[in-house]
Amino acid sequence: MKRFACLLAAVLTLCGCGIEPSEVRDEGRPPVISYSPTWVTVYLLRDGRLEPARIPVVSDSAKNIIDTLFRAGKQPPKPGLSSALNDFSHYDSEATRYSSTVRRDDLEGDLGFRLNVIITGAGKISRAGLAQITCTIRQNKQESIWSVEVTRLFPGRPESLGEHTCFEYRKLAAKGVRLPP
């Protein structure tokens, strides 16, 4: 019996798996995941007026959009554009849900979101800086973000800079620019 088992093992070893060995063949370049950026609109300043600029981002999350706005101010995509945010940094962003208070048993009462943008930096942020943040978020997240609240965290005491919509900054728009609601 042992002899038979050894003979069977030898036959199976010689037969192999049924795949014939071959030489290494070059089949071209390896597969690569192609990256296609998402484009967002950020609001920068030209002569103190809000002007849109399209910039690629990794994703259109609120955090990426705000990070892109702060970076774009330091390296404007077009000549003549600037930012009122250069002395500040984006620290964090957090969305909170608005809810209706009409009826307590109304489970469908959620209406939209408020985005709290937390910044750091010394000094007072200008009206144009608040407009840049608010209108950039509203342009790219019109359906879900209804208002933007800006909070300066440090240095010093944390300070709420209020809750805003882009509509209140309509007079800061450059000629021919239509701001989001």
Write a compact overview of the structure shown.
This protein is of the alpha+beta class and 181 residues long. The protein has one domain. The protein contains three helices and six strands, in the order H-E-E-H-E-E-H-E-E.
What does this 3D model show about the protein?
The protein is of the alpha+beta class. It has one domain (38-100, 109-172). The protein has helices at residues 2-15, 62-74, 127-140, and strands at residues 38-46, 49-57, 89-99, 110-120, 145-152, 159-164. The strands form 2 sheets. A 4-stranded mixed beta sheet has the order 3-4-5-6, covered by helices on one side. A two-stranded antiparallel ribbon has the order 1-2. Helix 2 crosses helix 3. The radius of gyration is 29 Å and the shape is elongated.
What brief labels describe this structure?
single chain; 181 residues; alpha+beta; four-stranded mixed β-sheet; two-stranded antiparallel ribbon; 3 helices; elongated
Strand order of the largest sheet: 3-4-5-6
| Percent helix range | 10-25%
Strand content: 25-35%
Give unreliable regions as ranges: 102-107
Largest sheet: 4 strands, mixed
Shape from CA axes? elongated
User: In DSSP terms, counting alpha (H) and pi (I) runs of 4 or more, how many helices?
Assistant: 3
Tell me the number of structural domains: 1
Pairing-aware structural class of the strands and helices?
A: alpha+beta
* Straight-line N-to-C gap: 87 Å
- What's the SSE pattern? HEEHEEHEE
User: What is the β-strand count?
Assistant: 6
Overall radius of gyration: 29 Å
* Overall pLDDT: 85
Helices and strands in order:
Blueprint: H1 2-15, E1 38-46, E2 49-57, H2 62-74, E3 89-99, E4 110-120, H3 127-140, E5 145-152, E6 159-164
Helix pairs in contact: 2-3
